[in-house]
Design a protein that fits this description.
Radius of gyration of chain B: 13 Å
Shape of chain A: globular
Distance between the termini of chain B: 41 Å
Largest interface: A-B, 49 and 27 residues
Helix content of chain A: 40-55%
Number of helices of chain A: 28
Number of domains of chain B: 1
CATH superfamily of chain B: Beta-grasp domain
CATH class of chain B: Alpha Beta
Structural class of chain B: alpha+beta
CATH superfamily of the largest domain in chain A: Aldehyde ferredoxin oxidoreductase, N-terminal domain
Largest sheet of chain A: 6 strands, mixed
Radius of gyration of chain A: 22 Å
Oligomer: heterodimer
Largest sheet of chain B: 5 strands, mixed
Structural class of chain A: alpha+beta
Shape of chain B: globular
CATH topology of chain B: Ubiquitin-like (UB roll)
Number of strands of chain A: 17
């Protein structure tokens, strides 16, 4: 098959069995690859209600037909599993080089099952696959681990994805780190930790064949010509998004108590990149090269360096915790990367704890003596270390995620626990961008800004359309959700949305599919495939016991009750009756039952999912 | 007389060589008049940022904020500005 390596690699850590089986053409024609195929694999192999930390849970590292080809923005891969944070299917996207390398090794998917009796890592060297002892690696940080594995294997060309102390200690939002990149969200690192799997390393020399190399090259040149002229990403990465979002009055600040941050200018890339950027990095074959490494050159945190920090981290470890000391922020981001923690969930959990502390719901004894006030950058760094090792009352509490932490502390602290469905809220306002009230709530992950990428469409709109108008949002979210389905199955980078299609599955997405696979699908068929994938994911959620009640109860109470108090987006919030209207309308568009949120029988039949029982 | 502050970010800063400036316009000034003023002062490079001949979607779309509120063009060309208003030239948010 064009575009695919043609094999699935299976590793059972419990039995030690390693096998490979052919990737079926019928499967990829129905589900493309990446998230689509993985959803089907999980439906067929993962029993409902599986505990995420049980050996029965499955972790898939997935590629799509774009990986290993010249498609710009194809330097991405997916980890898919059942998340301990949300208790449902979760896809965690990672950049870098490892996805292409898996294809070069000869595999489209790596499926990990079982649990090893002691720490191990998987070494994949083309056809030669081994489970190796990792006892000398357990406890190491993610950067140390990658270096040591490459040294042990004797070849720097290996690409490594690993967990750090966060994943080993089952922090529910621990991150898998590969190179400088993170599969941050959802805590799949802790699922690997529960399996005693420290890492996998892969290299290969095979190639990925496409039907028409000349056509592929033409497309590559066309997109490269455009994307290298992007006004922000090649020069600043995502770091300048913070200043603009703040100017619009939608930047989550002090645990979303407000959405205007007075310290934004100190941490926005417009200020920091000219001073601190030391090098750029790009994912496999990416002409845009949006990754920036920044290193602090003065002050208490001199020497601290990190990739980015990206916009989401500037929000979560910056405005959300009211830290405008860029050195403290970079140090905190670096700690998260080294320990393997999701920066978004870490920041949201700490911001909640800061609000609890300031309101007297957490005492100084309970914060282990830390003065956990908003703005305390030293405290931010200290708490991150405690979370990674579940150290002390606070470390233990926050390692569970903000949903569970707030249920433990109670006393009304759930009101300002900023998560949707257990996943801590990303840096795009569900009040300032009305479409996000809906997108987060009906998303399969909850607080992820990729479950329907509404803000690409909505941010350029005037306030009244962006934050107040609600009648048009169901259709917008319906379209953007399906765009994401295609991008997560081809696997292409969201930052190419402006070139491939920001709103919905489009001609360029179709072109990518046809250039890589030669399937010659039509746009109508592509749309149907997107709907099939989203509906199957919904079935997985339903099978795990989720339903409409989880969507309608998803928003944090703060955003349903408190308008944005100040700034250009003052007054915006998620009005309950609007929310209900939007959910009902979105369900209708999706072909789901209004009463239950289940896909209708006729929807399943239309999409070729007639074998699914829910 | 209307005095407004224009903020330039990113490429706009490169074109104008400034972070910001105050400009003086007549009474009942509009966004259109501001754009014309800036095109006169900064020429083709400034004007080029607002054309999109390749028909790309929103990649690199310029964004004009009036006191933090995004303005849709060309519908809002005749929006009046008031004394003390801040007009920011930036780009659609990418990333996050």
């Amino acid at each position: 098959m064009y575009g695919y390596a043609g094999y699935i690699l299976k590793v059972n850590l419990g039995t030690g069995k390693i096998s490979k089986e052919p990737l079926k053409e019928g499967l990829v024609k129905e589900f493309i690859g990446g998230f689509g195929v993985s959803a089907r694999i999980l439906y067929d192999n993962l029993p409902p209600m599986t505990n995420p930390y049980s050996p029965e849970n499955i972790v898939i590292f997935a590629t799509g037909p774009a990986q290993g080809t010249l498609i710009p923005g194809s330097g991405r891969g997916l980890f898919i599993s059942k998340s301990p944070l949300t208790n449902r299917i979760f896809n965690s996207n990672v950049g870098g080089y490892i996805a292409a390398e898996l294809k070069y090794a000869g595999y489209d998917f790596l499926i990990i099952t079982g649990k090893a009796s002691s720490p191990v890592y998987i070494a994949i060297d083309g056809d030669n696959v081994e489970i190796k002892d990792a006892s000398n690696l357990w406890g190491r940080t993610t950067y140390e681990t990658q270096t040591l594995i490459k040294e042990e294997l004797g070849d720097k060309r290996f690409q490594v994805a690993c967990i750090g102390p966060g994943g080993e200690n089952l922090v529910k939002y621990s991150a898998i780190i590969h190179n400088f990149h993170a599969a941050g969200r959802g805590g799949i690192a802790s699922v690997l930790g529960s399996k005693n799997l420290k890492a996998f390393a892969v290299r290969g020399d095979k190639s990925v064949e496409v039907p028409d190399v000349e056509a592929m090259l033409t497309f590559y040149k066309e997109i490269t010509e455009k994307c290298t002229k992007h006004p922000t990403l090649p020069s600043y990465g995502t770091t300048v998004a913070l200043g603009t979002i703040n100017k619009m009055g939608c930047l989550g600040t002090r645990n979303w108590q407000t959405e205007v941050f007075e310290g934004a200018a100190n941490i926005d890339g417009y200020t920091t990149i000219p001073k601190y950027r030391i090098r750029d990095i790009a994912c496999t074959g990416c002409p845009m090269g949006c990754g920036k490494i920044q290193e602090i050159s003065e002050g208490k945190y001199a020497g601290a360096s990190a990739k980015g920090p990206e916009y989401e981290t500037l929000y979560s470890l910056g405005s959300l915790v009211s830290v405008d000391d860029f050195g403290a922020l970079v140090s905190a981001a670096r700690l998260c990367d080294e320990y393997g923690l999701d920066t978004i969930s870490t920041g949201v959990s700490i911001a909640w704890a800061m609000e609890c502390y300031e309101k007297g719901l957490l005492t100084k004894e309970e914060t282990d003596g830390i003065d956990l006030k908003f703005g305390n950058g030293d405290a931010l760094n200290e708490v991150i270390k405690r979370i990674a090792y579940k150290n002390g009352y606070l470390g233990n509490l926050l390692a569970r995620g903000v949903k569970e932490a707030s249920e433990t502390v109670g006393c009304g602290s759930q009101y300002f626990a900023m998560h949707f469905k257990g996943l801590e809220l990303a840096g795009h306002s569900p009040r300032g961008v009305k479409a996000w009230t809906l997108g987060y709530s009906v998303g399969w992950r909850g607080g992820s800004h990729h479950d329907g990428r509404a803000h690409d469409i909505e941010y350029p709109k005037p306030f009244e359309e962006r934050a107040l108008k609600f009648e048009d949002k169901p259709e917008i979210v319906y379209k953007t959700v399906h765009r994401v389905m295609i991008e997560e199955s081809l696997i292409t980078c969201r930052f190419f949305g402006g070139y491939y299609g920001s709103l919905e599955p489009s001609e360029n997405h179709l072109k990518i599919l046809n250039l890589t696979t030669g399937f010659n699908m039509t746009l109508e068929e592509l749309w149907k495939t997107a709907r099939r994938i989203r509906t199957l994911i919904r079935c997985l959620e339903i099978r795990d016991g989720f339903s409409r009640k989880d969507d309608v109860n998803a928003p944090p109470l703060r955003i349903l009750n408190e308008p944005i108090p100040e700034g250009p987006s003052k007054g915006a919030y998620a009005k309950p009756f609007e929310f209900k209207f939007m959910i009902n309308k979105l369900y209708d568009l999706m072909g789901w039952e209004r009463e239950t949120g289940k896909p209708k029988k006729e929807t399943l039949k239309e999409l070729g999912l007639g074998d699914i029982t829910i | 007389m209307t005095v407004v502050t224009i903020e330039y970010t990113l490429k706009f800063r490169n074109i104008t060589g400034k972070d910001s400036e105050k400009i003086v316009l007549g009474d009942n000034a509009t966004i259109k008049q501001i754009l014309e003023h800036l095109k006169r002062n900064y020429g083709d490079d400034f004007e080029k940022e607002f054309t999109n001949p390749s028909g790309d979607q929103i990649a690199g779309t310029p964004l004009i904020l009036l006191n933090g509120q995004a303005l849709k063009l060309p519908e809002n060309l005749n929006t009046n500005v008031e004394d003390g208003d801040i007009i920011t030239f930036t780009y659609a948010i990418a990333g996050g």
